[in-house]
Amino acid sequence: MTYKTVTLKRGKEDSLQRFHPWVFSGAIAAADDTIEEGDLVTVYAHDGTLIGNGHSQIGSIAVRMLTFDATAIDEAFFEHRLNDAYRMRQALGLQREDNNAFRLVHGEGDFLPGLVVDIYGHTAVMQAHSPGMHFARDIIAKALTHLPGGVVRNVYYKSETTLPYKAHLDPMNDYIIGSMETDEALENGLRFHVDWLKGQKTGFFVDQRENRRLLEHYSKGRRVLNMFCYTGGFSVYALRGGAQLVHSVDSSAKAVRLTDDNVALNFAPEDGRHKSFAEDAFKFLDNMEKEAYDLIILDPPAFAKHKSALRNALIGYRRLNAKALEKMPHGSILFTFSCSQAVNKEQFRLAVFSAAAQTRRKVRILHQLTQPADHPINIYHPEGEYLKGLVLYVE
Q1: pLDDT at res. 318
Q2: Which pLDDT score, from 0 to 100, does residue 167 have?
């Protein structure tokens, strides 16, 4: 296998010597003229010292490092990394009789930058976020089917919306191996339809699994409002937790139908506690009756996918939380989240603090939430911490 070469400017190897997996375009002194998107490259320091191998790409991140030595990026490499990732999930106890949905590969967090793999039963849904992983998709799919116990029988490739548009790769979402067996997955004993064919991300937000379970603990006897409900995960957990009523809101009529399907999958038709609304979240909060709900979940899509949108995102989080806080009765609980990587914990907390001050509510933090252990953060890549959440007691 041929590797192109990249040589760094003096002093630009420092972050790589601390195992940060990104090489920025401004750090490169020289590179082979023939390098194309997704090529395997070997990166050298300015003095010729080998640093490691990675995937090249166009943009500010020019190389995503896969190794920090001379290890070849081949079938054996992917088999080894995927087996390591699977062993960690086994250690976490995520594959069991009442749970078969989890993240197997979380990009840099599993030392495979540019790759995401979620498991739903015996189906792996793979997303490439870099051209290099796109070109390696067949090798990766084959390696997935070699995991212990035959856990993966089907591999669905879903990268039409995740690859850089400038790469002109024209990926097609389709099964690489196998076919549809079932769209049902189990999470903590609850059943969910997962739409990996046309749904957002890989079809289900497995990153909220532990936070949904915490919500279940607080739901007994409460009137719950689940904003941006998507597949209704929080709604289903709230119902199992003994909520008095649960209302689910999403601007997408398709998401609302999927929520209704998931409620029906877990509860008897005569259980009339749930109602859904296909409506804009801000409009719903504006029009809702004061003190109608004493437990609200705000889990919006990313308000800022890039730093350029940070200011508007923080305004959005403040407005959203203020609208909820001003309508909540004394003794309410608010679960509020940000999944924007560009927004750090302190910025999100300040936005929520500003919302509380604006509405003049007394608010206490009960829990500070993050992503679960199957979405690990590479200690050398703090940018991998993207999910922030607060559980607030509102007086």
Answers
A1: 95
A2: 65
The CATH number for 4-65, chosen from 2.60.260.20, 2.30.130.10, 3.40.50.2300, 3.30.70.1890, is: 2.30.130.10
Q: How far apart are CA 118 and CA 248, in angstroms?
A: 25
Predicted pLDDT of residue 320: 96
Q: What angle do CA 32, 36, 39 make, to 5 degrees?
A: 90
Q: Locate 84 and state its tokens.
A: 């390591």
Q: Measure the CA–CA gap between 392 and 363, rounded to whole angstroms.
A: 6
- In the chain, where the domains are located: 4-65, 75-187, 205-394
Which fold, 75-187? Transcription Regulator spoIIAA (3.30.750)
Length of the chain: 395
* Alpha helix ranges (H) inside the chain: 14-17, 75-91, 131-135, 137-144, 209-218, 233-240, 253-266, 281-287, 310-325, 345-359
Which residues of the chain carry a pLDDT beneath 50?
none
- Read off the tokens for 245: 């009523």
